[in-house]
Q: What sequence folds into this?
């Protein structure tokens, strides 16, 4: 079967899928996301939301939508920051797009005090209206197609079974007709044997069309590359360690890097405005993470202050173990929003604080 179908089954099979049967987050799970590292991450996204709401003209109704909201930690931290702005907080309608029943229950517990909140299986189910969409580590789990370059063209990469009954990578016998016609020049020039990954544009175009037509913006935060290029990034993580993605289907988180150039192109193709991308470290620094960390440390014990410094470093540091440069941040909006906090050089970044 094609890699995209294997990935889809591993993650979303109704009985055995990784994302429909467990809570994968935290120390006891398989990986840790930025909101679980520190409250500062969600708080700054809350302040970013407030800034964008003001730029939208402070609409009387705002749908705050989160895609793949984990345990609800990021939304809880964002809403806590937004409570200091009652005119906005009172307009909020919160919408959580989540298919994992285990995580839904965690979210309901985390957000038990929130009024006007609803859960949905798909963003299509969220009612119309001005919106701000938050998508942290959402696109990396959307299934990828992998193509392998051969002398006679690009062949779809597939999963096969070898003579010992083990899963292995292989390639379709025939090349995909005219696949290279629309490829970026960098990919078209890749050597024989190179792997190119791509995702359908449908999800990004859906988000971009929504903010274009109904007023609003979306923020995409994920790990990946700034330009389309060849490379095999299909990977699996279990118990915070990389593992063979073919070894235990449905028992590990399988992901692939996000192509931010492709996302930007898809959004622009439907007429949305693109902001960025910038690195996560740069984005959080522009939003004031250093100031926020200093404020938290003033009230903290020495032990907690040490944890705050470590969390700040992990979120922003570009080096090994840091998320600062591997993760990128991309904004899309309706065309009239010409600048967005954290993503535009000429906007007053402290406006969101």
A:
């Amino acid at each position: 079967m094609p890699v995209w179908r294997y990935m889809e089954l591993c993650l979303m099979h109704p009985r055995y899928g990784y994302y429909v049967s467990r809570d994968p987050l935290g120390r006891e799970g398989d990986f840790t996301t930025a909101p679980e590292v520190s409250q500062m991450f969600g708080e700054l996204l809350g302040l970013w939301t407030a800034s964008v709401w003001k730029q939208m003209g402070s609409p009387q109704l705002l749908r705050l939508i989160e895609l793949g909201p984990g345990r609800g930690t990021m939304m809880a931290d964002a809403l806590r920051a937004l409570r200091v702005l009652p005119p906005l907080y009172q307009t909020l309608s919160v919408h959580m797009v989540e298919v994992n029943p285990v995580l839904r229950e965690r979210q309901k517990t985390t957000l038990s005090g929130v009024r006007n909140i609803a859960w949905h299986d798909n963003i299509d189910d969220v009612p119309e209206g001005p919106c701000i969409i938050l998508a942290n580590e959402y696109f990396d789990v959307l299934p990828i197609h992998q193509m392998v370059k051969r002398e006679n063209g690009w062949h779809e990469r597939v999963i096969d079974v070898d003579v010992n009954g083990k899963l292995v990578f292989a390639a379709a016998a025939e090349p995909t007709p005219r696949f290279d016609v629309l490829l970026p020049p960098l990919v078209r020039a890749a050597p024989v044997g190179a792997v190119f990954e791509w995702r359908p544009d449908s999800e990004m175009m859906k988000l971009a069309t929504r903010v274009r037509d109904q007023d609003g913006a979306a923020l995409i935060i994920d790990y990946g590359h700034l330009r389309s290029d060849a490379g095999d990034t299909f990977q699996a993580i279990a118990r915070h360690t990389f593992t063979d993605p073919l070894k235990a289907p449905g028992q590990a988180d399988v992901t692939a890097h996000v192509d931010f150039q492709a996302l930007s192109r898809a959004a622009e193709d439907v007429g949305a405005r693109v902001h960025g991308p910038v690195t996560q470290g740069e984005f959080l620094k522009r939003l004031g993470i250093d100031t926020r960390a200093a404020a938290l440390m003033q009230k903290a014990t020495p032990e907690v202050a040490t944890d705050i410094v470590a969390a700040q470093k992990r979120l922003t540091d570009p080096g090994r173990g840091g998320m600062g440069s591997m993760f990128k941040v991309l904004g899309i909006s309706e065309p009239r929003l010409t600048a967005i906090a954290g993503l535009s050089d000429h906007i007053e970044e402290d406006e969101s604080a």
